[in-house]
Amino acid sequence: MRPEIAVTGLGLVTPAGHTAEANWSALCRGRSLAAPDPELAGLPVDFSCQVTAFDAAAELGRSLARRVDRFAQFALVAARRAVDDAALDPGTWPAERVGVVLGVGSNSLSTYVTEFGHLGADRPERVSPLALPRSVPSMAAGEVAIDLGARGPNFTTSSACASGATAIGVARDLLRSGTCDIVLAGGSESARSRMTATCFTRMRALSRRREHPQLASRPFDAARDGFVLGEGAAVLVLERSAHARARGAPIQAVLRGYGAGADAHHPVSPHPDGAGAERVIRAALEDAACTPADVTLVHAHGTSTPLNDAAEAAALTRVFGADSPPVTAAKGVIGHALGAAGAIQAAYTILALRHGAVPPVANFEGQDGDHKLDIVAGQPRPVTGGTGLSCSFGFGGQNTALMFTTD
Asked: Exactly one of 28, 49, 161, 391 is catalytic; which is it?
């Protein structure tokens, strides 16, 4: 029999706040946090969802904060929060049995742009010797391991915007195989650079509602026109349930199912009918030994782009038919954190199950097409039962689905 995998702690750093409580309150208000972004001033799209009031030096100490890039700063703070939440003591845990798996969608473009600027000005002596260790995607996981003394497997998953969700699935496999007793898993990203915003704008992926940025991100709404750049991190502490109970840790949720696969269709566009998304959702249901009728809420990928939302809606409609469970999508509130998005969604799904409520989708006024999903709008909706599905999709047709239960 496969061992049950428990979530015993979670940590969050997002535009909605730096604690689980702050994030939950912001989600339930259902209002977008998009605002003009000084980093993007003068560009065709000059707004984003930013992590604010984040003092890296106060959180991490001046030396560590200076050494690591912003995406790694987020990961370090989220990991510390998760470990505290799980009542773990890194000073006494079996370090060789503790792994770290973090998803990152890209390296730090901000660091690269700054340092390439020195080269462009013919000033190679000004390039920082920290440029590479600050920007390599794997350094978020590496710095977390150094900070907490986790000497087990340590690596980074990169499956575009599914990276954080993929990391959680990989962590589950490390625990099931007996390789680890504890794994810190999640994702971190800070891609609010002028280059990133320009690239996505050129691809017509970002919303252009410059006059009303708070109305820009509107998952599944008929008037959606693109996503809003976000940033942040989420880290979950995963253990075998037997291990957690043996140390007296409260179990916040159980990771019941995981599905992963590829569209094998197009570099950036999803399969129009959502076939790949449907396959991984059904795989997660099968892995969890659940039927669609068992699902009490869906946290959709919901980017607010025309193609992605349509494909995801098609997949969910075929899986659930006319009996759609309540559907939410946090990107309306916090924007799209790219490689961290799936991990943040996983944490939000667990919070929704624990609170017995589904947060509303910001800016949702009505669906288009033939898809009749039960989109939650306006106010949080109470739900009974504790089975949540979280969906994450990305460039290259990367598809991941996670199933959590609290019953």
From this structure: 161
The answer to whether 199 is a known catalytic residue is: no
Q: Choosing from 243, 271, 301, 371, which is the catalytic residue? A: 301
User: What does the alpha-carbon distance between residue 230 and residue 197 come to, in Å, rounded to a whole number?
Assistant: 11
Tokens, residue 239: 């253990």
**Cβ-based neighbour number of residue 274 at 10 Å:** 25
Tokens matching residue 363: 């800016």
Tell me, yes or no, if 299 is annotated catalytic: no
Cβ neighbours of residue 38 closer than 8 Å, sequence gap 6 or more = none
Strand partners, 154: 100
Give how far Cα 352 sits from Cα of 220, 346, 406, Å.
Answer: 20, 10, 10
The CA distances from residue 231 to 162, 187, 200, 348, in Å, are 14, 10, 15, 15
Active-site pick, 28, 336, 371, 391 = 336
Maximum Cα–Cα distance for the chain, whole Å?
A: 63
Which amino acid, one-letter code, is at 351? L
C-alpha to C-alpha distance for 19 and 23, rounded to whole angstroms: 6
pLDDT digits (tens, 9 = 90+) for 31-80: 999 999 999 999 999 999 999 999 999 999 999 999 999 999 999 999 99
Residues 6 or more apart whose CB falls under 8 angstroms from that of 191 comprise 71, 105, 106, 109, 229, 231, 338
pLDDT in tens, 144-167: 999 999 999 999 999 999 999 999
